[in-house]
Design a protein that fits this description.
It is a single chain. This protein is of the alpha/beta class. Helices cover about 40% and strands about 15% of the residues. The protein folds into 2 domains: about 30-115, Rossmann fold, CATH 3.40.50; about 140-265, NAD(P)-binding Rossmann-like Domain (Rossmann fold), CATH 3.40.50.720. The radius of gyration is 19 Å and the shape is globular. The structure holds guanine. Guanine (GUN) binds near residues 95, 96, 97 and 140.
């Protein structure tokens, strides 16, 4: 029987643990952990994500604020807001929702977020720390994938892992995390030759390309763990992943559905990162989560 990994349930359990730590932080610090989210422009998907992040924060007993800026916001105006958030002691985490409008310099924006408040783990200092195997704030989506694999009891040590997608948000940090866990990692992408054959050798297959139902049954080794990071709309407007779930599920050893797989974990891991950031900034020592 295929193990369909229930991301919603795993995320709910993590959110409960985060809420406990948030309450402990509030009792000690005299204020709850706080996350500030910045959204520039009106991208409909981003609006939904940001709203969900804010709501999840409040459900976990954390303070959240959403800063909505118009699509024509200047680099200087965005920098000024970020500087204000960096200087505010009650702000533990800051997240700038991506993608940004094309006229804004994403690299400069992400570099302006202090590494200690960088709950997305996108600042070069956190990216470097991750690759060096040092403690860091880790990008939420790949971190959530690792937590799901652990929950499903998938052995990573010595496993052949193939990641399809080389983005800074998912593919690259996913590679760093899996290497850290002693998997043998291949990062594939749109130019990779013989992609289906390569994927079919994977014990752990991570699909993060943004192509609806790209991964079919012949791409998957029997018994493999398949993690689907994709969020796409099919021709009928239905939410589907990068994996053809109906075709692949009977063959996989474990698989995440879309929706209800990786998505809920991304948000739970964002809450985790925010509590971690608050804990560390306050100097409260190690946080077990
Ligand atoms: N856009 C899509 N995924 C993410 C994410 O994890 N963080 C941010 N900031 N923007 C995103």
């Amino acid at each position: 029987m295929t193990n369909v990994i229930d991301g919603k349930a795993v995320a709910a359990a993590l959110r409960l643990r985060v809420a406990e730590r948030a309450a402990a932080f509030a009792a000690r610090a005299g204020r709850p952990p706080g996350l500030d989210v910045v959204l520039v422009g009106e991208d409909p998907a981003s609006q939904v994500y940001v709203r969900n992040k804010g709501r999840a924060c409040e459900e976990a007993g954390m303070r959240s604020a959403i800063h909505r800026l118009p699509a024509d916001t200047t680099q200087d105006a965005l920098s000024a807001l970020l500087d204000r958030l960096m200087a505010d002691e009650a702000v533990d985490g800051v997240l700038v929702q991506l993608p940004l409008p094309a006229h804004l310099d994403e690299r400069a924006v992400l570099a302006r977020i202090e590494p200690s408040k960088d709950v997305d783990g996108f600042h070069p200092a956190n990216v470097g720390a991750l690759w060096l195997g040092r403690e860091a704030l880790v990008p939420c989506t790949p971190w959530g994938c690792v937590r799901l694999l652990d929950h499903a009891g998938v052995k990573l040590e010595g496993a052949r892992a193939v990641i399809v997608g080389r983005s800074n948000i998912v593919g690259k940090p996913m590679a760093a995390l899996l290497i850290q866990r002693s998997a043998t990692v291949t990062v594939a992408h749109s130019r990779t030759r013989d992609l289906a054959e390569l994927c079919a050798e994977a014990d752990v297959l991570i699909a993060a390309v943004g192509r609806a139902k790209l991964v079919g049954a012949d791409w998957v080794k029997p018994g493999a763990a398949v993690i689907d990071v994709g969020i796409n709309r099919d021709a009928e407007g239905k939410l589907v992943g990068d994996v053809d779930f109906a075709a692949v599920a009977p063959k996989a050893g474990a698989i995440t559905p879309v929706p209800g797989g990786v998505g809920p974990m991304t948000i739970a891991c964002l809450l985790e990162n925010t509590v971690r950031a608050a804990w560390r900034r306050a100097g409260y020592g190690a946080l077990d989560l």
